[in-house]
Specification:
Structural class: alpha/beta
Shape: globular
CATH architecture of the largest domain: Alpha-Beta Complex
Distance between the termini: 101 Å
Helix content: 40-55%
Number of strands: 11
Strand content: 5-15%
Number of domains: 2
Largest sheet: 6 strands, mixed
CATH superfamily of the largest domain: Spore Coat Polysaccharide Biosynthesis Protein SpsA, Chain A
Radius of gyration: 28 Å
Length: 686
């Protein structure tokens, strides 16, 4: 009986899944989503009914029409949000089951990308490489290979890698012997790092202490063709040494291995400032877009199936369907002219691993395929590999993969899989958001857009809506900017665009505003974040919309008109926050002379001018009872609160102050706006 029970338990373990997708119970959230949607539709209906009977002049009617147009856009965006978050999933991985079931794990190639040794210091990249080399993986000496792609071809980067290779001979055995948890040397030996440095319980042994001191002055597809690949940015070091095992669970699970293309880990950061003052930790956003066909490909912290990158279809997809590409339909000419590489491509597409044993021959082939002109006349960047044509080629690549019928999985273990350095200060944060939003809009206006991928491919309809929700980020800047200017406009010319306080209809926008903010605040609490973090994110969302997203629209518009092309702007990587910076200045918004700060400064000055005119009583007489009211004043004050960092910048000095050139430009623009607002009043109430 004992043997029978033992055998049954072993069979159960072998039959147990390697990962699970669990549907969250979100009935309350769905009810709130629908309530907000009904309120927004009710507001549109109210405007539609009252817009003709609005007892005012033509300009006031136009004000209501503009407000209705903005609110119609907000309603459309909310429909996309409801569709995206209707089914929330939780992904669970079981790496111990993987180790019990698989005697030999497949090989894996790891890619680290860097582009500028000044903005991305080699010491950061080296620590990322060392952390990857020390990952927990059975047979790692023969299974793992780490590649570094340096667009700058920097001798400094090459020298740093050479030194890192020497240090790795000491660092990797040390981490494995003492079960070190944090395997990026600069984090492990950081004065602020939490101790004990060893997770194995031997941190107090004399042997460990001696080796620790010894290891610490020393801190400074052709060749392997592995079936799985990992790519990370140069600053995203491996924080969880078992992440490779976690990621392989959905990739090797018998139930999902035929249709799971990649496993995406969330982007998280080390040395994060308290309450995330620059809104970098998109925790709620990342958890909300992992359903339907799975998460987007985010360009870093992602484990890929190699044959998917080479353009293969899922095994359970009918290759005869329109726009489909099976292994037989892929022409080897798509991949270039390297005979050795083509042999490896054929193996990868057939799910066969292994590479050439002749190292000199492999090096020669690697130099051939790495040359700048190799991809000319091929399908690289069009049908296979990373998809070109956008500064956010990661999103475009993931969407292309999912349009072929593939799914993706989300892996968020504890501790986090990878940690990177987040941008600090206003210029870095806004420039990064501008680059992202520019690339997203490029995808939307290109032939590789989600609508086309749904009509001609296998991208699910609701997944298409999710992509559209993200891709229209910077388009949202236009209606949001107009809506933010409406309160000031109405105060200056003494009109209104919201129902009066005594009008029962005021309950509609007030309820929608209150419920939405309570709802988003509860999401932050659910993710373990604070109310201050929620408010900081709300502030940065409005600042990004008025500044970064708006410039993203202009950038893409200039590209479409053929006036200029988009440029990939690298975000400056900083190793950690400076310890000599006063605590009062940590997280304080910084400025420079970039024109990206002009729209936000102008919007703030317009609100301040409107409130000043109201306090001084310099307003035209209202037409009947249609003057501005408490609702417009409250909205104007809310905009001022959203742009509080800019208000402090008007009084700040140095990098914490808005440059005078920016203030002068914004003052001129705000003066023009005030005169424009006064024009209809002067003409009608002269």
């Amino acid at each position: 009986m004992g043997d029978f029970n033992s055998s049954s338990m072993e069979d159960d373990d072998m039959a147990a899944p390697l990962f699970e997708r669990q549907l969250r119970k979100n009935y309350v959230q769905r009810a709130v989503d629908i309530t907000i949607l009904l309120l927004m539709v009710s507001l549109l209906s109210y405007r539609l009914v009252c817009i003709r009977s609005h007892g005012g002049d033509g300009w006031e009617v136009k004000t209501w029409q503009v407000a209705m147009g903005c609110e119609a856009w907000f309603t459309f965006v909310w429909v996309l949000v409801v569709s995206t978050k209707w089914n929330l999933l939780r992904y669970l991985t079981f790496p111990q089951r993987l180790l019990q079931r698989k005697r030999e794990l497949p090989a894996m190639d790891m890619f680290v990308t860097t582009a500028d040794p000044e903005l991305e210091p080699p010491v950061i990249m080296v620590n990322t490489v060392l952390s990857l080399m020390a990952v927990d993986y059975p047979g790692m000496a023969h299974k793992l290979a780490v590649y570094v792609s340096d667009d700058a071809c920097s001798p400094l980067t090459f020298f740093a890698l050479s030194e890192a290779a020497k240090f790795a001979q000491l660092w990797v055995p040390f981490c494995r012997k003492h079960n070190i948890q944090v395997r990026a040397p600069f984090r492990y030996f950081s004065p602020t790092a939490e101790q004990p440095p060893s997770a194995g319980g031997g941190s107090n042994s004399p042997e460990f202490q001696q080796e620790w001191k010894h290891i610490k002055i020393r801190v400074s597809g052709v060749m392997t063709n592995a079936p799985f690949m990992l790519n990370v940015d140069c600053d995203m070091y491996m924080h969880n040494p078992q992440i490779a095992l976690h990621a392989l669970c959905p990739l090797l699970d018998p139930r999902s291995q035929n249709d799971t293309a990649y496993v995406q880990c969330p982007q998280k950061f080390y040395d994060g400032l308290k309450d995330d003052p620059f809104g970098n930790q998109h925790v709620v956003l990342q958890e909300g877009i992992v359903s339907i066909q799975g998460p987007f490909y985010c360009g870093t912290g992602c484990f890929h199936r190699r044959r998917v990158i080479y353009g293969a279809l899922p095994k359970n997809v009918d290759s005869k369907k329109k726009n489909a590409r099976s292994m037989d339909e892929i022409s080897l000419s798509d991949f270039g002219s390297s005979e050795q590489f083509l042999k490896l491509v054929t193996r990868a597409l057939k799910d066969e691993s292994g590479a050439e044993k002749d190292l000199p021959s492999s090096l020669e082939a690697a130099l051939h395929v790495a040359s700048c002109g190799y991809e000319y006349g091929t399908s690289w960047g069009k049908k296979i590999g990373l998809i070109y044509g956008s500064t956010t080629e990661d999103i475009s690549t993931g969407m292309t993969i999912q349009s072929k019928g593939w799914r993706s999985a989300y892996c968020s273990p504890d501790p986090p899989a990878f940690l990177g350095c987040a941008p600090t200060g206003g210029p870095a944060s806004l420039n990064q958001m501008k680059r992202w939003s520019t690339g997203l809009l490029e995808i939307l206006v290109s032939k590789s857009n989600p609508i086309r991928a749904t009509l001609l491919g296998r991208l699910h309809f609701r997944q298409c809506l999710t992509y559209i929700w993200i891709l229209i980020w910077n388009i949202r800047s236009i209606p949001e900017l107009i809506y933010a200017l409406l309160p000031a406009y109405c105060i200056i010319n003494n009109s209104h665009f919201l129902p009066k306080v005594h009008d029962p209809a005021i309950i509609i926008p007030a309820s929608a505003f209150a419920i939405y903010n309570i709802y988003t605040l509860s999401e932050y609490f659910r993710c373990g974040l604070s109310a201050r973090a929620w408010w900081n994110y709300q502030q940065m969302a409005r600042i990004n919309s008025a500044c970064a997203w708006l410039f993203g629209v202009l950038t893409v518009l200039l590209k479409v008109l053929g006036i200029s092309d988009t440029v990939f702007e690298i975000t400056k990587k900083e190793q950690s926050t400076s310890n000599d910076q006063p605590d009062a200045d940590l997280g304080r918004f910084t400025f420079d002379e970039s024109p990206i700060f002009v729209p936000g400064t102008t919007l703030l000055l317009v609100q301040l001018a409107a409130l000043a005119l109201l306090m001084l009583g310099i307003q035209p007489s209202p037409g009947g009872a249609n003057g501005s009211g408490l609702a417009e004043v409250a909205c104007s004050l809310l905009v001022v609160l959203y742009f509080w960092p800019f208000l402090r910048g008007l009084l700040g000095k140095g990098k914490y102050g808005i440059p005078l050139k920016t203030i002068y430009k914004s003052a001129a623009l705000s003066t023009v706006f005030v005169l424009f607002c006064r024009f209809p009043s002067v003409g009608l109430h002269r």
